[in-house]
Amino acid sequence: MVATPMDLDDPASGATPSLNIKRTLGGNGPSTSLLNDIISSFRPTKLFQRDDIKEGKPQPHILSIDFDDPGELCMTSESDETIQIYNVKEGQHAKALLSKKYGVKLAKFSHTSSSIIYASTKQNHAIRYLATHDNNFLRYFEGHEGSVTSLAMHPGSDNFISCSLDNTVRLWNINTKQWTAKLFLKTPYLSAWDPSGRVFAIASPSTGSVLIYDWRNYEKAPVSVFDVLKSRGPAETDAAFRGWTTLEFSNDGKHLLLGSKYNGHFLLDAFDGSLKAYLRKPNGGTRRLAAGETENGTVESSGDCCFSPDGRFVLSGSKKDLLVWDTLSPIEEANINKVLDPKFVLDEKREAAVVAFNPRYNMIATADQELMFWLPDPHA
């Protein structure tokens, strides 16, 4: 694995420099740098290029990015059926794991940094629980009869949600192979937990709705149903029924982000589903498939947008540049469609098809075929 130093790297001769990352707002302790003060100064800092690709073989696409709970490890799942793990603080590649027999996508850390879950792309549709220190499977979670489209870990326990093309949502506990609950829904392609872990959301594009469930009473009807068609702002009707890429609650519990591969994302009120802002993408979205789409020859993604850890900013990839919206930006009454343009456009020539913000440090990761770490420029 080749790590390419960029403009912010410490030019220590002959050694791979450590990254000067600082704690971010949120988590278990105070931040050392408020995001509001530095968000506009983030720059592409370290590019990782795979050096194990044989000559004549295509460069794989990165399908997902995830961080462990302490924010010290970054993991990607890739289209060549590998899992790559990076040490964040050192800015170095740490380990490569192979899943050639089953394929891999949607890789997620459990609450233990040495174990992960991921969805299969070959043989069957099982979810696999892997110990990364010795590359041994701990458990298979079997039951889905269609490709898995989303995995969401509970924020404080060993429970997780899976969504699938088989029109089911399954709830699991990582300590047992049998699902604990199964919901039959139409196109339930995305899932998310609220930060308290008391509520989860399921996005169903074909019905144009996001369903909110009480975790303690999930066997009952959803407690709320958000109508995306009603809350789509200026987006075309088609965007309310397809092309959804991401579903995520903000860490302050106030907002729900519904990503779209079209010309904007939807920032919804997490309590009533009303449109808080339509986050306009000036040059449209990335070229990846949305959740649940199966077009041949096009690569899927785990999500092209996310919240910052403090819940204030939304970041989104695009065909070039990284877009940043400030959710506290005022929207004038005359702006009836609640269109919000990016407050910052962070320069980047590469497509940012997958985006993730480190939960503990001031650090962003983006990827298409190569992984990029972003840090604030101390000289900005």
TrEMBL record:
The keyword Kinase does not apply. GO terms for molecular function: chromatin binding. WD repeats lie at residues 141-182. It comes from the Eukaryota. Its main location: nucleus. Residues 1-26 are annotated as: Disordered. GO terms for cellular component: Set1C/COMPASS complex. Keywords: Nucleus, Repeat, WD repeat. Pfam families: WD40 (PF00400). One of its GO terms (biological process) is RNA metabolic process. It is found in: Nucleus. Belongs to the WD repeat SWD2 family. This is WD40-repeat-containing domain protein. The lineage of its organism: Eukaryota, Fungi, Dikarya, Ascomycota, Pezizomycotina.
